[in-house]
Amino acid sequence: MTGLSDAVALDDPVGESLRGHHAHLARRLGGAATYVPGVATFSAVPAEPDAAAWADLAKLLGPGEFADMFSCPAIPPPDWEPVFVLEGRQMIWAGDSGPHPSHDGSDRDMVELGAEDVPEMLDLVERTRPGPFWPRTHEFGTYLGIREDGVLVAMVGERLRPPGWTEISAVCTAPEARGRGHAVRLLRAHIARIVARGERPFLHVAEANSGALALYERLGFETRKHVTFRGFRTP
Question: CA 79: distance to chain centroid?
């Protein structure tokens, strides 16, 4: 399993993912990179970007387009319009081995979600607002869901994939299905899958989301660092 000494890849999770596991989902120009439309608006520039790198990203995205710089600390030129700023945390799973999967049949309603489930996934995201999710976001990796009476009521998925790590994301439960442990079961299933392939789980969470922070800490996640999420619109 990946150790903490390899956590440097988490300092630039978007860029590392676009250069590696998600290269097939990347668009590039010079020193800038972003995801193909419909997957994500996350964008990346070098660690110490110069004016040329920002110009490459602006050209890559096009005028007046949104650039989600995620946790990148670099600030673009002043003609880029700020869209949002959100304080958050990057958390890593501190366990030594994956949780043991249940064998009592309690996970029989857990399903792997795919392209045919996208309309339901988008509807659930619209009702729960776990973070950005687009028609092709499921192409990041595995998404697991729980259905009640055939209706998708909870979901957790994989997102960024820097070397040795997998980000857990899109943690959401419909309001009418909360309090039944769905999120915990889905999170544990994802942790087990990630650890089984020799990687380590991590995630990001808004600082103000105290309920999610408490849940992740109970499941063995620890804060690696505080981050600031930023989004801009290109000139």
Answer: 28
The yes-or-no verdict on residue 40 having pLDDT over 50 is: yes
Query: Is the pTM above the cut of 0.90?
Result: yes
pLDDT at 95: 82
Residue indicated by tokens 């309001």: 175
Q: Which two structure tokens, joined as six digits, stand for 88?
A: 């958050």
At residue 109 the predicted structure's pLDDT band, cuts being 50, 70 and 90, is confident
Rounded CA separation 162/50 (Å): 23
Bridge partners (DSSP) listed for residue 27: 34
3-state secondary structure the chain: CCCHHHHHHHHCHHHHHHHCCCHHHEEEECCEEEECCCCCCEEECCCCCCHHHHHHHHHHHCCCCEEEEECCCCCCCCCCEEEEEEEEEEEEECCCCCCCCCCCCCCCCEEEECHHHHHHHHHHHHHHCCCCCCCCHHHHCCEEEEEECCEEEEEEEECCCCCCEEEEEEEEECHHHCCCCHHHHHHHHHHHHHHHCCCEEEEEEECCCHHHHHHHHHCCEEEEEEEEEEEEECC
Phi and psi dihedrals of 156, rounded to 5?
-145, 140
d(CA 165, CA 171): 18
Q: How many whole angstroms from its chain centre is CA 160? A: 5
